[in-house]
Amino acid sequence: MGGDHAPGAVVAGAVAAARDLDVIIQLVGPTGLVGGELARLVDVSAPAERSRIAERITQIDAPDVIGMDDAPLAALRRKPRASIKVAAEAVAHGTADALYGAGHTGATMLAAHGALGLLPGAERPALAVLVPTLAGQSVLLDTGATLDCRPEHLVAFARMGAAYARVVLSLEAPRVGLLSIGEEASKGNDLVRDAQVLLAAAPGLNVVGNLDARDLFSGTVDVIVSDGFTGNVALKVGEGLVETLERMLKREVGQSLASRIADWLVGRGFKRLKARMDAAERGGAPLLGVNGLAVVGHGRADARAIRNGIALTARLVEGGMIARLKDALRAH
Amino acid sequence: MGGDHAPGAVVAGAVAAARDLDVIIQLVGPTGLVGGELARLVDVSAPAERSRIAERITQIDAPDVIGMDDAPLAALRRKPRASIKVAAEAVAHGTADALYGAGHTGATMLAAHGALGLLPGAERPALAVLVPTLAGQSVLLDTGATLDCRPEHLVAFARMGAAYARVVLSLEAPRVGLLSIGEEASKGNDLVRDAQVLLAAAPGLNVVGNLDARDLFSGTVDVIVSDGFTGNVALKVGEGLVETLERMLKREVGQSLASRIADWLVGRGFKRLKARMDAAERGGAPLLGVNGLAVVGHGRADARAIRNGIALTARLVEGGMIARLKDALRAH
Asked: I need a labelling partner for A137 at 20 to 30 A (CA). Which of A155, A220, B248, B326 fits?
């Protein structure tokens, strides 16, 4: 039931995932509503696909729904059978390998944290987002799970981010950098300066130093470590600027004689670019640090983003993400 | 002597300012070196301009120079006759109305703070930068002077930012917003949530609430208030992304059949855009909160940026910036 386009986009994304991925999907929500959407989509599927979908998609009833405007903590207490809570409990009970939800990020984090608890040594949860760079992709964490951090939290984030980069970017020794306002060790706020001392002494990490925020999208490090507030600001400034630049650039280029050609070309280029930048396309961000796999999708996710989010979730299950996180946190 | 291209670009920018602005410029630096640059530029000027330049540009000898790689505090102690220190003292002694420097930002801030002290109620200094938006320009502060802030510092920044916006953007009642990760009061880190309570109760400010970082360039508020670390990260993510996008977009558009035309058009559009985004073009950022006018230019400033920085500085002197800051801080 999560996200602006639920349950339609969620069920459609699940059906798309069932078609082309090797996954079993348990749809959690009010059975009548979800079942109606599912039946409608099965009806319009090719006959050969119907049995595949029926085999791969089951339902778990969860009559309560937490809306995007609800205060998450109060809503979770008031609605014990909310879909996000029931889904998190399925992971806790071992009847699901992972949870994927595109609803209220705060409610998803609280439900996952509450039902699953934290991994030993994780300190705090962190949302890890893949950002596009000139070189490919980098992991940025935390992007909003833990807004006020202590230096030791950032060290745990570095360990978890490196474990995630090993699975999702297939890297042996991901380069880790601390998000700051310059590469120099003397720059940064108290948190960054204290954390860099701890990070430099942390074994098992390929720490390359501080990353100037100017180089966030340069691809010079694979894992960018930040407190959740700064990381979220950085991500949102980037997303907002892409939208703003597109409008500014069309206006600038539009002044030329060949404005219609330029509009078309720039529009095309930006469409591809935005596909790389857009959170919806990325599908989801794992909530690292909780003792079970939970992936948070974007509230504006459409069916394709939901399908991509399920694909990412399945990949992390297959990659043994939780076992790797435990190793990374336990080793030190 | 400040900046990567000093003293050549600084002297050339001063000569350009002397030509077309109503200002008297005192060039501070090693007299021989600066005088040589000046003589060379006067020699190639039109005869009619020579006397104007000679009347408007004088020199103050300051034999010491602080380099971009020096540790600022130690360098200022070791070099009592450094150009930036001598310039700050000229403002403190009233022999100059304002200081403009494009050198080491940390050294400029320390020298200005040391020689001029803080305005009553200013709490801490803040660097105020003009950022381009869809609607025009907004003031973002702090962008690096005070990296670790308490809530009351942000309230003083809001007052100073509003006073600056009144002068530089000619606004009656600038809209003030607190940089956060959503518009909702419930979002944000401890600093933002404590500051918003203080701001909401602060008289004389047109506070519109929290600004989602996604809307940094949207122009929905005129003054964006932040701690210096987050503000600097936001600014640098924006600057870095423009550079990265230009390279990505040229690559994307370059795949088309009309790639050469597209390259040219996109290059042209981006050039204009970058002119709006680029820190060098903005000329400078005033260090608000010190008891005297100090404007910090970009280290990469060329002659044109220096000239623009001097123009901004002159405009702030004429606008009675310091008196307005005193009023804004004293009124409450």
From this structure: A155
The two tokens of residue A136 are 């490919």
**A33 φ/ψ angles, rounded to the nearest 5 degrees:** -60, -50
CB-nearest partner of B266 from A181, A240, A266: A266
pLDDT < 50: residue spans in chain A:
279-280
Phi, psi of B21 (to 5 degrees): -125, 155
Region of B204 (left: φ > 0; alpha: ψ -120 to 50; beta: rest) is: left
Judge: A244–B188 Cβ closer than 8 Å, yes or no: no
- List CB contacts (< 8 A) between B189 and chain A: 147-148, 227-229
What's the mean pLDDT when you consider all of chain A? 90
Residue with tokens 């979908």: A53
**Cα–Cα dist A210/B46, whole Å:** 50
Is A236 close to B181, i.e. CB distance below 8 A?
Answer: yes
Contact B174, B159 (CB under 8 A): no
Higher pLDDT, B126 or B6: B126
Minimal Cα–Cα distance from B87 to chain A, Å? 25
Chains A & B: contacts with CB separation below 8 Å: 169
Report pLDDT digits (tens) over B271-306. Answer: 666 666 664 456 789 999 999 999 999 888 899 999
**Chain A nearest CA to B106, separation (Å):** 10
Task: Tell me the shortest Cα–Cα distance from A256 to chain B, in angstroms.
Answer: 8
Nearest CA in chain B to A254: B269
In sequence order, which residues have a C-beta less than 8 Å from that of residue B236 and are 6 or more positions away? A181, A212, A213, A214, A216
Residue of chain A nearest B249, judged by CA positions: A269
